[in-house]
Amino acid sequence: MQMDFADPKDPHAALYDVDDANTVITLSDWYHLVKRALYVEEVYLHGNGGGNHEPIPDSGLINGIGRYKGGPAVTRARVNVVAGKRYRFRVINTSAYAGYEFSIEGHRLTIIEVDGVSHAPLTVDRFMIYIGQRYSVVLNANQPVKNYWIRAPMELQHSSDNKNCDGAPAAEPTTTPGTGTGTLLQEHLLAPIVDPGAPGGNVPADRTIDLRFTRNTNGQTEWTINDIRYESPDLPTLLNIVANGFSAESQFTTHEHTFVLEKDKIIDLVIHGSANGHTHPFHLHGHAFDIIQGESGPVNYVNPPRRDVVGVKGSTVIIRFKTDNPGPWFLHCHIDWHLEAGLAVVFAEAPGAQRTGPQSQIIKQSWLDLCPIYQALPPAFQ
Ligand SMILES: [Cu+2]
What we know:
The chain is mainly beta. The protein folds into two domains: 13-185, Cupredoxins -  blue copper proteins (Immunoglobulin-like); 207-362, Sandwich (Immunoglobulin-like), CATH 2.60.40. It is 9% helix and 30% strand. It has six helices and 21 strands. It has helices at 37-46, 237-242, 336-340, 351-355, 365-368, 370-375, and strands at 24-30, 59-62, 86-93, 99-104, 109-114, 117-124, 127-129, 134-140, 150-151, 154-155, 207-217, 221-225, 258-261, 266-272, 280-284, 289-293, 306-307, 309-312, 316-322, 327-333, 344-349. The longest helix is centred in the first third of the chain and has 10 residues, at 37-46. The chain binds copper (II) ion (CU). Copper (II) ion is lined by residues 278, 280, 333, 335, 338, 343. The site of copper (II) ion (CU) has 6 residues, from loops.
């Protein structure tokens, strides 16, 4: 099936020739679970007094296919290209635990889009992609016709614990898969091309929120932010806001760990890294944010990278956004095991504007009108 994703308004449309179902590349991790995921999670959270490390996947997959040590030599994923064409590959990390270093043998990659935001073309040889992140890269198929490795070795803590664990390059070239070489993407060099610049420029934020995360193993594994482990409420945050009129932080329980943000304010989140070896991919719902201070590089208010997942390891990372999108927005580590252990907070953004006004969450009549239109369609179109 050929699907054409071409966007006529794409500012980078002139940079590539092909963008279709064949150019989506997913990277994921795979667990050979003898027991169910909930059991494995229970062992992580409560086994060994909370002293167990994260469950380790057995293999990495490219487009759903991967090998593991001692396993069958399945045909690896293959991405066909035609010599002379330029391809927009959309690389997505859909994993539970793993980050990847992505590269394609013998080819440079020009990054043009990050987490749905167009950025100035930046050519590298390889880049790290953490869970939930997306990159569009242009590859020019201008090399001799033969097979080249697509490489995506996993970045994991404790991977030696699982002897099945194997990188999952996907092709059958005659060279060895190895790892990528050459220029590695430095995130701070990415610059958005539409409306660049952090909200408010270099003025101080209206509100600065420090977020310090820690792993505790006192009888169970928990990840806390500012000493609070997030736990899902019985009643969803949105419902408490729109139906029960919640507007103050004190109305939420401690473990809902909910910050109420006023409308149209500039918010800085100061996420303090910790030296525990993981890169935590922090994902914010409801906004693309500006990374005014990344894991490395200078402070930048002029044209910092804009995305919705940022990796935080040992440094202090500062992200900025404006509260112009009322809603209950989650900020969480995208490593599933850490999220389940509590590594999250909620922002109740502009609660009043969620209840009334043009941005309210109350379903508009024009949307309700869609239901009878849909139900009137012939069954084949429903
Ligand atoms: Cu994490």
